[in-house]
Structure prediction request, 473 residues.
Amino acid sequence: MLELINSHLLLIATVLLLVDIAAWRLLPADAKVWRVVLRVGFFLTYSLVIVEAGLSPLLPAPWPSPALNMLGSVLGIAWWLLLARTATVVMGVVLMPRSGHTGRLLQDVLGALIFLLAAVAAAAYVMQLPVKGLLATSGVVAIVVGLALQSTLSDVFSGIVLNTTKPYRLDDWISIDGVEGQVTEIDWRATYLRTAQGSTVVIPNSVAAKAKVINLNRAANVQGVSISISVPAAVRPRVVIEALEKTLQGVTALLAKPPGRVSVKGSDLEAVEYEASGFIATGQNSAEARNLMFDLAHRNLEAAGVQRGGDAPKSRLRAVLDDVKVFRSLTSEQKDELTQHMTAQRYVAGQVVLELEEVTDHLMVIGTGVISAAVPTSDGSLAEAGRMGPGELLGEEGMANAVASHARFTALSSAIVYRIDKEHIQQCLEQSAEVSTALNKLHAFRLQGTEALLMQKPAEVKKGKFLSWLQRT
Prediction:
């Protein structure tokens, strides 16, 4: 048996190469440990077989027969390529756990260099080619190819820099020169972003390396959202800044820490541009948060007396009523009549506007400020369910069904709340059945939202649910 094996060592070496290729193809990609073990095992076995057959990868084939000489040269070249492949596989196992997915590009570049060195070594030792002349010729070719692929090579090396410095990683929300999206892939040539609209943006690595990159995920699993508002230059900046600060305070989707901020971005003789920015938890819908910020900013600016372009001047009371959806069915004359019976009540931050279980005899409309709604939980504590802004209603349960308030409403900032006595609301109910229906629907919807909220864990209030029904006013 040993004599048979010794007489067919070259054939065995050839079979080992074929079995190695087949095993590499058949093993699943996730079986990384087995792939490495088999690769190293086949390489060591193959090395032992060709050495026993009298073939050295550092020397040309020693047999005078042309057929054996060609087979020996092929097996010697295969040894160098197998060595390069084994080295790259082992390097991948060592490199990937430390650098993660972002180390793939560096691994591919190092693997290409290893195979290049193996090819040069095989040409020098096995084929006895003049390596110096080959390297000189390949240098000229490399210069020509490099000039032809200048932009591609720039992307490749920029990708190496990005993967080394790591300004962003997979799944990060980033902004590159104003293009915002989530990083889905970083390869040799480009960075792939998935935008909030679901489209894919491909940014060459050379562009990303030179551009202004804003990483929205680098601060403890949060991402930033911002809106820009242009206001006529005649409006005092302090008025706009206070209104936008109340906007940031009133949107429950925004995190308290890190805090949001309001700043002036630029101005000219006609308008001043303001930016209000905050942070939301990773995974939340940034587009929805921006929509809420724009809507609340509009109401707060209007509450501060900032008129919209093209609108005819009108009283603040009438503007408040126009924002209340419950009163939309009233005629202009009926709204003017109702404004005659609205009385303003001022509240400071922390003051209770409507107590839990209180039966009110008047309907309240928020004129300015931010009001927090808190509902009782099963353990007797209060959990914040949402926040309300200008144009929203309180005390509708007392008007619709004469029942007690199911929440405590507290002013988070200085606020002005307009009260309308029950007798005047009753007149509206008699004049318009739509108002009565709207109040009943609002009350039922808020009760449903409260019940859904209390079914969750009190310590983990899901933001945005209660706010959505508050905004139905």
Residues 66-99 form the longest helix (34 residues). Confidence is low (pLDDT under 50) at residues 1-6, 98-102, 309-313, 457-473.
